[in-house]
Write a structure and sequence with these properties.
The structure is a homotetramer of 226-residue chains. With 226 residues, chain A is α/β, with parallel strands linked by helices. The first copy, chain A, has one domain (7-225): Alpha-Beta Barrel (TIM Barrel), CATH 3.20.20.70. Helices cover 39% and strands 15% of the residues of chain A. Chain A contains ten helices and eight strands. Chain A has an eight-stranded parallel sheet. In chain A, strand 3, helix 3 and strand 4 (90-93) form a beta-alpha-beta unit. In chain A, helix 8 packs parallel to helix 10 (213-222). The longest helix of chain A is centred in the N-terminal third of the chain and has 17 residues, at 21-37.
Amino acid sequence: MSSRRLIIAVNFKTYVEASGDEAVSLAKICDDVAKETGASIVVAPPMPDISRIASIVDIPVFAQHVDDVMPGGTTGYVTLENVKASGARGTLLNHSEHRIKVAEIHDLIERAHQLSLSTIVCTNNTGVSRACAAMGPDYVAIEPPELIGGDISVTTANPKIVSDTVTTIRSVSDEVSVLCGAGVKNGVDVRKAIELGAEGVLLASGVVKAKDKMAVLLDLVSGLDG
Amino acid sequence: MSSRRLIIAVNFKTYVEASGDEAVSLAKICDDVAKETGASIVVAPPMPDISRIASIVDIPVFAQHVDDVMPGGTTGYVTLENVKASGARGTLLNHSEHRIKVAEIHDLIERAHQLSLSTIVCTNNTGVSRACAAMGPDYVAIEPPELIGGDISVTTANPKIVSDTVTTIRSVSDEVSVLCGAGVKNGVDVRKAIELGAEGVLLASGVVKAKDKMAVLLDLVSGLDG
Amino acid sequence: MSSRRLIIAVNFKTYVEASGDEAVSLAKICDDVAKETGASIVVAPPMPDISRIASIVDIPVFAQHVDDVMPGGTTGYVTLENVKASGARGTLLNHSEHRIKVAEIHDLIERAHQLSLSTIVCTNNTGVSRACAAMGPDYVAIEPPELIGGDISVTTANPKIVSDTVTTIRSVSDEVSVLCGAGVKNGVDVRKAIELGAEGVLLASGVVKAKDKMAVLLDLVSGLDG
Amino acid sequence: MSSRRLIIAVNFKTYVEASGDEAVSLAKICDDVAKETGASIVVAPPMPDISRIASIVDIPVFAQHVDDVMPGGTTGYVTLENVKASGARGTLLNHSEHRIKVAEIHDLIERAHQLSLSTIVCTNNTGVSRACAAMGPDYVAIEPPELIGGDISVTTANPKIVSDTVTTIRSVSDEVSVLCGAGVKNGVDVRKAIELGAEGVLLASGVVKAKDKMAVLLDLVSGLDG
């Protein structure tokens, strides 16, 4: 198992129940749980909520996506410089719901590194994971598309894709951390992910749609302890 | 001349000098000028700054763009529901730097209307202006691409495109207001726009890149008085 | 009823059963039926088959789409100049499966006109139909997305959308012809379309997936006779 | 130096001087030179010309791009199945003028392999080359964007990027062949490319814009001989 910091990344997606004031509430719960337990929790709220949440919580706020364009005459796009100025500390890239071009991923990883922003590149299979790891992001998050938003965790439905991804990524890089996602819902799923060689999880509906979000987060965090 | 409310819409684009804390400062100046003068000023800050600015100023905050997707599994996109939840009161659509599909414009105008969000559809010539006006947005903003970011105001360089746009839009709708933009920098340009039949202006660098932003805004506003 | 030439436009889409040699066969059947009956039939085969089919048949060959780019350094895109050089006489634009930007539609209509290429702009509702008609294409083809590929013809399922489209288009242009599509399968559907004010139909699976394609085409053509 | 077959790939782009009848003429010249010299020459004509050229020449015809969609309801897109049915034997992917998503490249390489179509994935730097090679295409073609269409061959202007690409690709795959492109114009450039470890070149304007295309092709081919 890695000695790196294990993380739980919570993607709010664009759910209305995690947008605006509700996004602020959820981010505060994540912040509270992180402070209480010492766990590393990262939140990725809807784009317009980044600045407000970053000004309120201490845990890292990530964008869900950035566009590979430069600041200036790029109305309506979101640049790395914008999210940094708004207080974000990193970004998801190439989420299954927002795939981008390979040259864009490469360029954004390099530019994010220069701006001290972290990158989590999402991937759909081991081949794409290897390709993306070869470009040197901080994290690769493997999420089989057919399991996203479902009830069965990738760690149960397809544990081999997680361990295979760890193996194939290690063949091209020692430095890229591996997350896994899709269907992750509780501490058992998190523990299994770590046993499979992942260094954390990326999840969304498991937290966003939970009635008792704090209880779910505490359970997830419990899985981080060996 | 119309009896409608005349407006000055300030697009911050993604300029670093109008992003994060600087976006907040600029929005506050706009808010101050609006309160002092009674003028209608609308600000369109970088996407991640919307929530923070909307929680601070009283003038309308607009998004620079929204995606024609629904809330939920649309990571990294920006929905109408997101910007509304974050406090925005409207959005630019189809900016020259971010063109969208005709069916998207139609769909977003209808959905924005249901959400009580205003829409400013940007256009590049009289033909596109007429087409977009036919779909019933609140505003059409004509901006000849070759003049955007330049030193000469559209009202000087090509006054005919403004008056022609007003005429052609009136042939398909009595209710769509017309703005003009590209190179607009001062009160004289604003006054000329209104004389040509426009009901306000859309501008960016003229404000964002000004050294004394308050002075520029006060000058622009002075052009609103017949 | 219009005195304009009534047409039947057959979109091969990218069906394998209408690609390569099979595309050539289908185009020849359309050509034969057109010659036999005197009807106007237009074929829109898969992109790579345009040149071969145009060199074999006499009826007009249309592209299913073109990109709004200029000839030269635009590898892998399809320009108006390319399809013209390959023998095409027009193009579909903004098909429901391939929507494009409003400024692109406007630009492509103007450039196609200069190149003497015809344009059929596809639309999804009356609002978008009106907007697109305002830009002056040769045809607007209304196809309600929910009926495309289905078993019930738009002329039966939603005749009002056809007649409303004709009416709204006439409010902005006298020169744009109206086609309708979605679920059109036989001569009765064609006759109904014309009674509703359309000047022809656009169809795909009704011909492409038919066992006896010649029989289906002859039946469709029979509907053109008042 | 590799014992693999060395190739010269000629991208016609969308130049009018290599479209329609002119595309056929150029493809015939390439075919003649290939037959006369025994060299491997691949042609990538404009999309609508694929079927006609493939029915005339014996050398491999490649598409310049394919879309990652399936046959059927994908009007105006170009599928792998379409180009195969039209006689193409492979395709360029991710050309600098037509970048695509990383998951699309992965998917298209796998599906092309199943259809016995070859793939040439274009890349812009060593990092992206390594990532793309990791997904197992037949060829990676490195083309520094700043040199494309220029007068100085990549083999002269930046020989290190070619040799570095070969090295980094070998670190993830023994089976991917490397091409280089940008500014390649003559046999000296081809010979240098091969000395740097490439197994051929990809070029466009050097052939398309040449007055005596046959002479240029014969000169290029001469560089293939050690």
